[in-house]
Design brief:
single chain, alpha+beta, Trigger factor, domain 2, 3 domains, five-stranded antiparallel sheet, 18% strand
Length: 498
């Protein structure tokens, strides 16, 4: 779904004969809910004027037997090309006058218009109807009444030390051992997981009431959903697997097989698996123990530092943490401001068809992401219905930013757009090519412009709201950012590129 803000980065040029409101008559009726019917009437003289201009422009290049090039009379050109020219003008005027009328009536279209009852007979002008859905209108709260806590944090020496120690842990070597696995060891496993149904709230009643569930009813069972993995390395005690998985492998040796009856947590990041039981059959291939490298020249060279200077690692680590912190603080600050605005505004009712369209796009994107990871999305329960809450949030936030843009009258700062693109391009081997790639495509550039403009609008809000600082640690900011859902398509794109 295209960002609602991106529409504001494109301008439309209207023909001078149809830009005056007096030259067309517009009426708008509410048919049902968010549905609208617009009727537009354009007088014949406005149509004729445009047709004649177009015909006049043909004179210099039109060749008609009996006349020198460019000397054919307009009347003869009109006789030969008039019908076709009028049809082209009518089609263009219907499109352009609809756009102009929608702007005049301050309608924020949610769907493409469907043109009906188009009548453009010669001498009758143009009369047409268009049906479409609109986004709801709502009022922004007084910005100065907002109470916003702005997170602030800094990178400390202890943060750098901790990351360097993590790098040391990631650089550790592994060796196969012939003993039972203990916490801190790594096991190499093959597994197969069978995912069960999510328990129903009234499941107890169904169990005790035989008459309530006919034998063989398809609601009684669902096809088994399976997950498979081979040669998966799992470091025991790291907590990267669901609760009980790592603990269930403590004490295993090579060639052991264990069956683990587990359950996905209620807050699992893949909501379609939350609270569902799963049975894992795990075969252990090997058990390994680790050995850490000393924080010395060898460790630095292991990380690609040619001079072996540990301080080079610390400097690079600090720079990386500062960049991550700045990005996370920006996202978290944006979210705080958005939450404060939405709390004041309350729930915004949205057209159901638009929510479904957005939810379908979200679900399709998730399916493609899982396919890219080698997973079968059909076994994961991904559906547009389960994505509707996220769709509603993203649409609401887009509408909110549209209102803020109208109120603030801000436009994307070209210098900040350039800075953002250069920042994203810096992580690629050919930064200049990436910068050119963004600027050569209008849609790619509009995506970055939208992200920058959102940041500008948030700053505009913060300058006028009642803002207090919320002191946080680096870990608190980064952990909260990692667990926060994207509230807009722009957020999602930003997280993928920064």
């Amino acid at each position: 779904f295209e960002s609602l803000l991106s529409h504001h980065f494109h301008t439309h040029k209207y023909h001078p004969h149809i830009t005056k409101r007096s030259l067309m008559h517009v009426t708008v009726d509410t048919t049902e809910g968010f549905s609208r019917r617009m009727r537009v009437e354009i007088p014949e003289d406005a149509v004729t004027s445009v047709v004649n201009e177009r015909l006049q422009s043909l004179i210099p290049t039109t060749v008609i037997p009996g006349f020198r090039p460019g000397k054919a009379p307009l009347k003869l050109i009109a006789h030969r090309y008039g019908v076709k020219m009028r049809a082209e003008v009518v089609e263009k005027m219907v499109f352009e006058t609809f756009q102009q009328a929608a702007m005049q009536e301050k309608l924020f279209l949610a769907t493409e218009p469907q043109f009906t009852e188009v009548n453009a007979d010669p001498g009758q002008g143009i009369n047409y109807s268009a049906v479409f859905e609109v986004y709801p209108d709502f009022q922004l709260p007084a910005i100065e009444t907002l109470e916003i806590q702005r997170p602030v944090a800094e990178v400390t020496d202890s943060d750098v030390d901790r990351v360097v120690e993590t790098l040391r842990g990631q650089s550790k070597t592994w060796a196969v051992v012939d003993r039972p696995a203990a916490e801190g060891d790594r096991v190499l496993v093959d597994f197969e997981g069978v995912i069960g149904q999510k328990p129903q709230e009234d499941s107890a009643d169904q169990v005790t009431d035989d008459a309530a569930q006919p034998e063989g009813d398809p609601a009684e069972t669902t096809p088994a959903e399976t997950l498979k993995g081979t040669e998966l390395p799992i470091e025991l005690g790291m907590g990267k697997m669901i609760d009980g998985f790592e603990a269930g492998l403590i004490g295993t040796v090579a060639d052991d097989e264990r069956v683990l009856e587990l359950k996905y947590p209620s807050d699992y990041y893949r909501s379609e698996l939350a609270d569902r039981p799963v049975t894992f059959t795990v075969r252990v291939r090997s058990v390994e123990e680790s050995a850490l490298l000393e924080t010395d020249e060898d460790f630095a060279k292991h990380l690609g530092i040619e001079d072996g200077n540990i301080e080079t690692i610390r400097t690079a680590t600090r720079e990386d943490l500062v960049n991550k912190l700045e990005f996370a603080l920006r996202v978290k600050t944006n979210q705080k401001a958005i939450d404060a605005l939405l709390e004041k505004i309350g729930k915004i009712e949205l057209p159901g068809s638009i929510v479904k369209r957005e939810a379908t796009a979200i679900a399709q994107k998730r399916r493609e992401e899982f396919k890219g990871l080698g997973l079968d999305p059909d076994t994961l329960g991904i559906s547009s219905e389960k994505s509707e809450s996220q769709a509603e949030l993203q649409l609401t936030v887009s509408l909110l930013f549209g209102k803020l843009m109208a109120l603030s009258k801000l436009t994307p700062d070209a210098d900040k757009v350039r800075e953002r693109i250069e920042s994203m391009a810096s992580s690629y081997q050919e930064p200049k090519q990436m910068i050119a790639w963004y600027y050569e495509d209008e849609n790619r550039l509009a995506s970055v412009q939208s992200a920058v403009l959102q940041d500008q609008m948030i700053e505009w809000v913060l300058e006028r709201a009642n803002v207090t600082e919320e002191r946080m640690s680096l870990d608190e900011v980064l952990n909260q950012y990692a667990s926060a859902p994207a509230t807009s398509e722009t957020d999602s794109q930003a997280s993928e590129t920064e």
